[in-house]
Amino acid sequence: MDSKEKLAGWALVIYAVLSLAAASIACIVFYLFFFTELPELLVWIFIAFLAVLILINSVGLAAGIGLIQEDSGAHTLAVPYSIFCLLNFPIGTVVGFFYLWVYYERRA
Questions:
Q1: Which of 34, 64, 104, 108 has the fewest CB atoms within 10 Å, i.e. is most exposed?
Q2: Total Cβ atoms within 10 A of residue 98
Q3: CA 6 – CA 47 distance, rounded (Å)
Q4: What SS3 state is found at 91?
């Protein structure tokens, strides 16, 4: 593995950690300020949405750590996570595009 792949791994780790932190802060703020004021169905939808975000970013964290440790199986997690990152403009788009560029450059 070359240094670009490790850099992409670090980018995925940093992005996943920041996204997990943002989701955690959103959970805390939501619970403290809005939990009792919203209808129950909307509360559960929001909690499910945050749980999915936490799950997806945990996969990204695992993929980034795998890339840093030069695990060849990390690419199976990193490719779908990078595609998901492309939807998160602007930082996620940069991180996702960088990893996909490194990945497809390696395969060519």
A1: 108
A2: 17
A3: 34
A4: helix
DSSP state letters, 2-49: -HHHHHHHHHHHHHHHHHHHHHHHHHHHHHHHTTTTS-HHHHHHHHHH
Place of tokens 């809005």: 34
Rounded (10°) angle between helices 91-107 and 74-86: 140
| Alpha carbons 79 and 60: distance in angstroms, whole number | 9
User: In a structure prediction context, what are the per-residue pLDDT tens digits for the chain, which is 108 residues long?
Assistant: 678 889 989 999 999 999 989 888 887 887 777 767 777 787 788 888 888 988 999 999 999 999 999 888 888 999 999 999 898 888 889 999 999 999 888 877
